[in-house]
Amino acid sequence: MNCPYCRNPDSRVVDSRVADDGVSIRRRRQCTACSRRFTTLETTSLNVIKQSGAAEPFSRTKVINGVRKACQGRPVTDHDLAVLAQEVEETVRMSGAAEIPAHQIGLAILEPLQRLDEVAYLRFASVYQDFTSLSDFESAIAKLREERSDLPRGNQRPLTAE
Ligand SMILES: [Zn+2]
Hints:
Blueprint: E1 11-18, E2 24-31, E3 37-43, E4 47-49, E5 55-57, H1 60-68, H2 78-94, E6 99-101, H3 102-116, H4 118-128, H5 134-149
Parallel strand pairs: 4-6
Antiparallel strand pairs: 1-2, 2-3, 4-5
Helix pairs in contact: 1-2, 2-3, 3-4
Bound molecules: zinc ion (ZN).
Zinc ion binds at residues 3, 5-6, 8, 31, 33-34, 36.
């Protein structure tokens, strides 16, 4: 990265720390020519391998767009979706791999979406996990109910609050 002041391509790192988002590294650099300091934000590349085999850079926006459809008419805000997408990114980055199969992104979406809204979760899961019959829904709902009975009382919301 060129020095933003004098365009010199050489700099040395004087400090680095993990940024607030937990997935990038903030480096304090000093230009070897003019000695001025500047900050860079580095994020390791993360590619999603689609079913076709094509790779594309991971995008939170794509995660949000994928989930937004399932959230139509549900009390889910843009902020909720942004937080979910960040959580998904952190989960997939945690694996440390530079390439992630698209399938794994879907898996990483299911858990936070279930916490966010159970109806949206069911919609998303029905598409993503290819539900083909009512009994697929029934078993998914039974599983939700089961998991919910583990929750302390007061944390329970009605499953179908349309
Ligand atoms: Zn410089």
